[in-house]
Amino acid sequence: MTTCRRFAQLRQRYEREIDYQIGRAKQHAETPSGRASATAAKTTTALMARSLSSHVSRCLECR
What's the superkingdom here (predicted)? Predict the structure, then answer.
């Protein structure tokens, strides 16, 4: 599947945010903020999947 430049930018932005949240969750493993970061990473992953799927369905270049 070929994708457009915008798809790659969206994916990179989400992956950077997820990596940050996972790193913060590991750094503060047993604290409430660490657990919240782990939950946020899971939520962001689902949001990324939804956003990229929506992009592919609308983008003529990605179809």
Answer: Bacteria
- Beta carbons of 46 and 52 less than 8 angstroms apart: no
In-domain check, residue 41: yes
Rounded Cα–Cα distance for residues 11 and 31 (Å): 29
How many residues would you count in the chain?
63
Residues 6 or more apart in contact with residue 54 via CB below 8 angstroms: none
Tokens for 61, please give them: 């270049």
How confident is the model at residue 30, as a pLDDT? Answer: 93
50 in a structural domain: yes
Task: Write the CB contacts of 34 (distance below 8 Å, at least 6 apart in sequence).
Answer: 24, 25, 26, 27, 28
